[in-house]
Amino acid sequence: MTTLTSALRTTPVTAPPARFRDLIASEWIKMRSLRSTPWTIALTLLFVIGSTVVATQADKAAPSGPDDLFRPHDAYPPAGYWTLILVAGTVGALTVVSEYNSGLIRTTTVAVPARGSVVLAKAAVIAALWTAVGTAASTGSFLVSQAILAGRLAGVPITHPGVFRALVASALLAPVCALVGLGLGVLLRHAAATMVTSVFTLVMLPPMFSEGSRWSADIKHALVSAAWNRLIQTWEPEPGSLGYTATVPGSWIVYTLWPLIAIALAVLVVRRRDV
Amino acid sequence: MIEVSELTKCYGSKRAVDHLSFTVRPGQVTGFLGPNGAGKSTTLRMILGLDAPTTGAATVSGVPFHRHPRGLRHVGALLEAGQVHGGRSAAAHLSALARSNGIPRRRVDEVLQEVGLTEVADRRIGGFSLGMKQRLGIATALLGDPPVLMFDEPINGMDPEGVRWVRRLFRRLAAEGRTVFLSSHLMSEMENTADQLVVIGRGRLIAAESVRDFAARGTRSSVMVGTPRAAELAAVLTAAGASVEPEGSAGAEKLAVTGIPADRIGALAFENGIRLNELTTRTASLEVAFMELTADSTEYQAGQPR
After folding, report:
1. Under a CB-based contact definition with an 8 Å cutoff, are residues A117 and A23 in contact?
2. How many CB atoms are located within 10 Å of the residue B287 CB?
3. What keywords are annotated for this sequence in UniProt (chain A) (predicted)?
4. Most-buried pick from B102, B110, B128, B134 (CB within 10 A)?
5. Nearest CB to A8; choose among B48, B99, B142
């Protein structure tokens, strides 16, 4: 009895100041302690870089572009990077949807009544983790495709116009989608609804709109995967092209606004709603 | 100290909690009782700032709980035991919570020891029994060494040893001067644990008083008397000021006597030469008092259309 009582009393009751970095550390512990996290990341990287190998090899069989300009594009095939979009969006959403599903969110909220800070801490951890994964994926893709192309004396240096931009845009695709997924997860809370909505907005929506008419092109260009498509193009659109093409600065703005708006809405809503 | 005043929560047109006011004081174990659906969990959630009240207010140590940027040092709460991520280990779950509140890591080992989960600390919570999850929930509540503790149905799923342990723990936490607030729909859980009771039914306050006062409110104690000469004895007892209800079947008549104690009934029978087969005092249990008081306010009653 005495020992038990002392066990309860050893911690001083004086509370240290509430620090945001403690919340980040806490969310990092949660992320790290799930077995699925390293597996998901490893498999995703394998698939993304693997798809680059396949795409670059295929390019050898049928020479595509009029010149070298199209070659860096091989590094970022849609099959691989749309998968990255799906996985990042889903994992981002799950970090919060799983808390709502299990009820853990209540325990979390009692521990940290400042709900907005919890969402921001989750966003910080997700952004950091998926920027790392995205950078590994896009650098890996670039190096692997260059290694294959160099074998055919068709390599393109990183200093080539647009090549570095493509690498950065592909690296940031993962955190952008993960943050959008997190925001949707907070807003919708329901697993299936969140998955369907994030897949729909991130992947299914852009092909619905064409670049043939102004309004349709405007909607398309405001979507994340279309912005990524523009940013990895190392060639400039032909002046005589019939379609409307997104601008590079506009595409960067789309990249910034989607996660910003998603997280801002999430923080606003989470403060007002019953847990 | 927990203070609830005029707390009301409406879901659409339904009032889950209806102008509820009560105070939970430190240094005592206070039971929070009500039938299923009485609004206990909703009330606890409002005290913890998880749900916003429609009207009214709740404070913990004088402050609305949601104003604290970090909560674990102010209130420890066990909500539902299932509210954990099954894929994490108990140690990781507690470490993440401790870290968010700037609580040192060694505290995690202390509370795991305290609730007896040290050996399974690194096992995934998904494989835990309900009783183990309850213990983990209690560990979570103890993490910040808080002055106020709230437990929602803490005894659910615990084995008898666990129940004894948890009762001793609650008594000890109260003896240390903490506010201990336990919800339950079973009166029997409170009989040996709580000092004070807050009883609600359909969201309204039914009683807020000591366990002893509450028991006394229910059926007054009655005496069962078995005798072959029931009619005669009934007349004698009625004349002595008792109220008598005949019970039992023909040939084995019994009388339920209220208003005079058993020894007085024995003496009256002896004086009148009436033989007794049985003389048993039935004390009102808390359970009976609870059933009587909440009978009108039970939300879901089996087999009785309202």
Report:
1. yes
2. 15
3. Membrane, Transmembrane, Transmembrane helix
4. B134
5. B142
CB contact under 8 A, B88 and A34: yes
The verdict on pTM exceeding 0.90 is: no
pLDDT in tens, chain A (275 residues): 444 444 444 344 566 778 999 999 999 999 999 988 999 999 999 999 999 988 888 875 545 444 555 566 778 988 899 999 999 999 999 999 999 998 999 999 999 999 999 999 999 999 999 999 999 999 999 999 888 887 776 777 787 878 899 999 999 999 999 999 999 999 999 999 999 999 999 988 888 888 888 888 989 999 999 999 999 987 777 666 667 888 899 999 999 999 999 999 999 999 999 98
Long-range contacts of B161-165 (CB under 8 A, 24+ apart): B162/B131, B162/B134, B162/B135, B165/B116
Which of A93, A83, A262, A237 lies closest to A170, judged by CA? Answer: A83
Question: How many domains does chain A fold into?
Answer: 1
- Is A171 domain-assigned? yes
Which of A13, A103, A110 is the closest to B71 by Cβ?
A: A110
Chain B interface mutation, best of A91, A110, A269, highest count of B Cβ atoms under 10 Å: A110
A189: left (phi over 0), alpha (psi -120 to 50) or beta: left
Which two structure tokens, joined as six digits, stand for A5?
A: 């009582």
Taking an 8 Å cut-off on Cβ atoms, the answer to whether B85 and A7 are in contact is: no
Q: φ and ψ at A103, to 5 degrees?
A: 90, -5
Supply A139's token pair.
């650098």
How many whole angstroms separate alpha carbon B102 and alpha carbon A12?
12
**A152-164 core/surface letters (b: 16 or more CB in 10 A; e: else):** eebbbeeeeebbe
For residues B174 and B149, give the distance between their C-alpha atoms in angstroms, rounded to a whole number. Answer: 9
DSSP reduced 3-state for B156: coil
Q: Determine, yes or no, domain membership for A9.
A: no
d(CA A111, CA B71): 5
SS3 assignment, position B94: helix
- Residue A10 resides in a domain: no
What does the CA dihedral A65, A70, A71, A75 come to, rounded to 10 degrees? -130
Count of C-beta atoms within a 10 Å radius of residue A274: 12
Q: What is the CA radius of gyration of chain B?
A: 24
Assess if residue A174 is contained within a domain.
yes
Q: What's the gap in Å between the CA of B148 and the closest CA on chain A? A: 13
ipTM: 0.86
* Six-digit token string for A227: 């912005």
Host domain of residue A268: 21-58+70-272
CA B101-B102-B108 angle, 5° bins: 85
